[in-house]
Write a structure and sequence with these properties.
Number of domains: 1
Mean pLDDT: 87
Largest sheet: 2 strands, antiparallel
Shape: globular
Helix content: 55-70%
Structural class: mainly alpha
Order of helices and strands: EEHHHHHHHEEHH
Oligomer: single chain
Number of strands: 4
């Protein structure tokens, strides 16, 4: 655990913020290179990346604060300090999807192909972001006796909740799983109908989150039923919606070869 990389006077570099910045940089660079290779307007793609970054952080932070309100009720200003950790990615996804659709339609980008291009970099970005969670000590797991259980320092949030216990490294479970998802998505690129790769990513991410959430600590207010958290309900809903969209796009008539493929 290393929540703060260094501090110099009023300047603080937090590991969580650093990993988020790294995730965005690596993912955006990958996406921009892909856009250039496919002949898309790079300015539109760059703008879309920045817009989605902002709305994703806003949505993810809003959902995290909403499901952990007792941590912020006494000092609501803390809810604005995103760099200290605390994002629920589903909140970001639920806000980013309609925003991305609106922007692509507005500027004339090929909606489903752009969505497909986002999928592998986004999986990589999620993997890097969870490393930031681990270093920050947030999004921690439940107590475990497994040999890879982690004991955080006494000052960590988790140690205040579970003093003296080894915990599931739930953050790193997601990192490993998202890297595996990224590898599968890369292997299937250009082998599926437009849009299917994106919805496959949503399905994979939903399964990952649903399973890992059984090892993760949530406040009682975040549970809809015993051992069934709100995030798991969202996982089920997103998986079902993604499965329907994947099937519908698979039945769509085959598109004519595009210029981007003809040039390859």
């Amino acid at each position: 655990m290393l929540p703060q990389i260094f501090s110099f006077g009023p300047i603080h570099l937090y590991s969580y913020g650093l990993m988020l910045a790294l995730a965005f940089y690596v993912g955006a660079t990958w996406l921009w290179r892909d856009a250039r290779a496919r002949g898309w307007d790079e300015n539109h793609v760059a703008t879309l990346s920045l817009v989605l970054l902002v709305v994703s952080v806003v949505g993810a932070r809003a959902m995290f604060v909403g499901t952990h309100w007792s941590d912020y009720a006494g000092n609501p200003v803390e809810a604005l300090k995103v760099w200290r950790g605390g994002l629920t990615l589903y909140g970001g996804i639920l806000l980013a999807i309609p925003t991305g659709i609106f922007y692509c339609l507005r500027v004339g980008l090929p909606l489903w192909r752009v969505a497909d291009a986002f999928a592998p970099p986004l999986a990589l970005g999620m993997a890097l972001g969870r490393v930031g969670c681990f270093l920050n000590g947030c999004c921690y797991g439940l107590p475990t006796r497994l040999p890879w259980g982690v004991m955080f320092p006494p000052s960590a949030y988790s140690s205040m909740q579970f003093p003296g216990h080894h915990l599931h490294p739930s953050q790193l479970y997601i990192t490993v799983a998202e890297l595996g998802a990224m590898g599968l998505l890369v292997a299937l690129r250009d082998r599926l109908r437009p849009g299917q790769l994106w919805w496959l990513f949503v399905m994979l991410d939903s399964v990952i989150r649903f399973l890992v959430d059984y090892t993760r600590y949530y406040e009682p207010s975040a549970y809809l039923l015993p051992n069934f958290a709100l995030s798991q309900a969202l996982s089920v809903g997103l998986f079902a919606a993604a499965l329907v969209m994947y099937a519908l796009l698979g039945r769509a008539p085959a598109a004519q070869p595009s210029a981007e493929h003809a040039a390859r």
